[in-house]
Amino acid sequence: MFAPAGTPPPLLTQIEADIREAMKAPDTRVRLEGIGMEMGDGSSEEMRRVLAADILKWGDLVKVRNIQIDQN
Q1: 3-state secondary structure 36-61
Q2: Residues 23-64: pLDDT tens digits?
Q3: Which of 29, 48, 53, 59 is the most buried (most CB within 10 A)?
Q4: Phi, psi of 31 (to 5 degrees)
């Protein structure tokens, strides 16, 4: 999940805690994994690591192929 820039840190902490709690429910995990989501620990630090790895993995391809977001 993402939050807008400037979201107050206490609110981010609460959202992170709520996500971790929701992920404890087996049916939630099953449903999300069923649509191809990979489940982590729900921390913002883990998300930063995943995003950094994805940028390294896919960044060059996006540049070379001039892939752009369709904003329509």
Answers
A1: CCCCCCCCHHHHHHHHHHHHHHHHHH
A2: 888 898 889 889 998 877 778 888 889 999 999 999 999 999
A3: 29
A4: -65, -45
